[in-house]
Amino acid sequence: MLEKKKLIRNIASLGIIQVVNYVFPLITVPYVSRIIGPDGYGIINYAAAFIGYFTLLIAYGFDLTATRRISQNSENKEYINTIISEVITARIILFILSCILFIISIYFFKPIQKDIYIAIILFIGCISTVISPQYIFQGLQELEIFAKLNFVKGIINTVLVFILIKESSDYFWIPTLSVCFLLLINIFLFFYAIKKFHLKYEFISVKQALKLIINERMIFFSTVVISLYTSTNTVVLGFFADNKEVGYYTTSQGFLNIVNLMLTIPISTALYPFIGKGFSVSREHGINLIKKILPIVFYLTFFASIGILIFAPFLIKLIYGHKFDNSIVVLKIISFIPLIVGMSNIFGIQLMLNLGLDKVFFKATFIASIIGFILNIIMSKYWGYIGTAWNCVIIECVVTVLMYFALKKEKIGIFEIEYFKPKQIILTLKNRKE
Questions:
Q1: Predicted TM-score (pTM) of this structure
Q2: Closest by alpha carbon to 125, among 168, 95, 89, 153?
Q3: Which helix H or strand E contains 2, and what residues bound it?
Q4: DSSP for 243-298, written as a single string
């Protein structure tokens, strides 16, 4: 019962974080979008997608693997100290490698040269990934502090946006403020975690850190191939479209992220260590937990997707203005992605990774990413941002179907019609049944 209350509290905290992350921007976006227009958003979002590769390299999937290790050994402080020390040392090595690759990319990657300053600012933000202690709080299921910090950040950021952005050329303040807050928050959270959980950093040899990097490569490769059919859509589109078209696509994609970040990601982040503990009890117990949780995730994401489809024209015009009318059709096309991603998250992150089926997870995402990358080049070249939107939907469907059949091949069934009944869902939420 205590664990379930902690789970609900963590989901609520993460939900508040994402509400804050997007409610405050929803106050500023109608103002900012009418000043910087689709071109400004195109430049920022393209650079963010590109720098996302370096963030991915530095993060190296440790928010999954380290979280899993900590959640299954939450009482062993010495072991947790070792995990933290290994992760930080490994991320420092990966950051140094990223710096070298970034310098090379500035000279040879033409699309990013559209605004090098924005790219440099966003790359500096990668430092926050090195020290990010999310896996510590997530593994120990203590996430409430994130909600408080993000609320304060939201207020300050909103005030600064209205003060600093006055004309179209001021668009650089958006990534600048974002990076500054990321750095400050992660520095604070790192030292707060050390003090709160009585942890300490231990010297780890480069050899030991490299061993960790090699051992955890499957999850990292999985995050890379996932990126090939998500953020790479934007990068590929940049080769065939101008900043304005990139702006139309990324605006809709960004708006869709409001749903994912307010709904799917809080649930996924809080569930992962909770279900991990369930699997530490027994395989059957963990699978049974997922059977009960899946219908709840299904209904939440289904109705969210319906809402996006119906209200897309109203929301785009209200928030972004008539300059972004071309984003409406994109948002309609990708409106059901929250549902699709919600299901693939249950199949992949929650089930496969907690069961240690890392290679199965990688295989499913790898196949989907190769199909998606090739299809994305074709569709972006011939149909522009509309083709990119359709490609996004197609590949999310492909990866979800591949994961489902991969689980069936492993003889793992997670669909129980009984748990989809409203009465059973109410009982599950009230914790009346195990």
A1: 0.69
A2: 95
A3: helix 2-59
A4: HHHHHHHHHHHHHHHHHIIIIIHHHHHHHHHHHHHHHHH-HHHHHHHHHHHHHHHH
Q: How far apart are CA 47 and CA 105, in angstroms?
A: 12
Which structure tokens are listed for 201?
A: 């950093």
Inter-residue contact 21 to 259 (CB < 8 Å): no
Question: Using alpha carbons only, how large is the chain's radius of gyration in Å?
Answer: 21
* Amino acid identity for residue 118 in this structure: I
- 152's tokens: 């304060």
Residue found by looking up tokens 């928050």 in the block: 185
pLDDT, tens digit (0-9, with 9 covering 90-100), for 199-257: 888 888 999 999 999 988 887 887 777 776 667 788 888 888 887 888 888 888 877 87
Give the whole-angstrom CA distance, residue 83 versus residue 67. 10
Burial of 296 (0-12, 13-18, 19+ CB in 10 A): middle
Of 341, 317, 368, the C-alpha closest to 256 is 341
Phi, psi of 282 (to 5 degrees): -170, 160
The domains of the chain are located at: 2-429
CA distance 207 to 190: 24
